[in-house]
Amino acid sequence: MKKIGITTTVPIEILLAAGYQPVDLNNIFIADANPERLVAVAEKAGFPLNCCSWIKGIYGVCMEQRIDTVLCVTTGDCSNTVMLMEVLKLRGIKTIPFAFPERPDAGQMQKALEELAKTLDTTLDAADKVREQLKPCRQLALKLDELTWKEGVASGLENHLWLVAASDFNQDCHSYQRELEALIEQCRQRQLYPPDYLRIAYIGVPSVYGKDLYKYLESNGARVVFNEIQRQFAMPHPASSLAEQYTGYTYPYSIYDRLKDITTELEKRRIDGVIHYVQAFCHRGIGDIIFRDARKLPILTLEGNDDFLLTQHLKTRVEAFIDILQRSRRQTKIAEEV
Ligand code: SF4
Questions:
Q1: Which of 15, 85, 175, 314 has a CB 3.0–4.6 Å from the CB of 20, allowing a cystine?
Q2: pLDDT (tens digit, 9 = 90+) per residue, 8-64?
Q3: Model confidence at 138, in pLDDT bands (50, 70, 90)?
Q4: 216 alpha carbon to ligand 1 midpoint, in Å?
Q5: 2-124 belongs to CATH 3.40.50.11890
Q6: Mutate which of 77, 83, 279 to test ligand 1's pocket (most atoms within 8 Å of Cβ)?
Q7: Cross-strand partners of 97
């Protein structure tokens, strides 16, 4: 299949139906052994220092891997993608724009999907068949999510990796399904996480720290049991059509739609504290004001840029946050016993 780069989660069912293999450029960038190199490719080409590292990384991947077609989301993801698209065009890359509707409306989504199918010379009927084929993969991703928060046998990192990979199913949905089935089987043989582990929610775009943040939390007695956007990539709500599926997906829409989903999950998953990750120079960082206004739980905001590992400064902040949560848990326990 011909590869098509994607800049975020998009209706991949249409791409697959049209004979393309979607490649999530973000995942290639962050999984690279040396992501700094890819950022440097973009900076050498003239991307400003105060541009988000994900955008620069995507550009670097396109150049290094000679991606020749990219589906760029122009509404519902990133304000920088429009200009990235123009630069990619300048480099001779074919770009296909896709705009999520302004609000989660199934009628408008249907039109946007039809338009995309027409552009790629396929039909929504064909894409709906792909939706059926991908169902087992999506169900497995959600099973792993349950094994994380409900059954306590999957780690926050495993949860992050498999849910974030649902944007393109690691470019091979058959291997994804096989490997995830094996992991789920393995999880079922494991001992439960001890109940004294703090339960953390991670909200916001995936971080540039990759595995480091999850591992550091676990080594300090806390684990992530809710990865907000990664879970959205797996499409957590059952739907009877593609339009319905992508209307229930909260990421492209208003932050208040995300907040509704987050609030429900925080309660359901018995969260002790929230980490809100924001990327330097990203418009989404302003949303921290809204999350803090709505908060009922302690929240730690971490801003990352192009340090791909946790710095000592960040580790200290994470430790202090964990300390606050542990003390608060102890006090609640004492109060309950009195
Ligand atoms: S982190 Fe923000 S600025 Fe960077 S690519 Fe994502 S949405 Fe765009």
A1: 15
A2: 999 999 999 999 999 999 999 999 999 999 999 999 999 999 999 999 999 999 999
A3: very high
A4: 24
A5: yes
A6: 279
A7: 72
Nearest to 185 by CA among 138, 133, 140: 140
pTM: 0.96
pLDDT digits 0-9 by tens, 253-307: 999 999 999 999 999 999 999 999 999 999 999 999 999 999 899 999 999 999 9
**Mean pLDDT of the 86-109 span:** 97
Greatest Cα-to-Cα distance within the chain, rounded to the nearest angstrom: 70
Q: Measured between alpha carbons, how far is 11 from 15 in angstroms, rounded to an integer?
A: 7
Report how far ligand 1's centroid is from the alpha carbon of 128 (Å).
29
- Beta carbons of 277 and 48 less than 8 angstroms apart: no
Going from the Cα of 103 to the center of ligand 1, the distance in angstroms, rounded, reads: 19
Domain boundaries, given as residue ranges, for the chain? 2-124
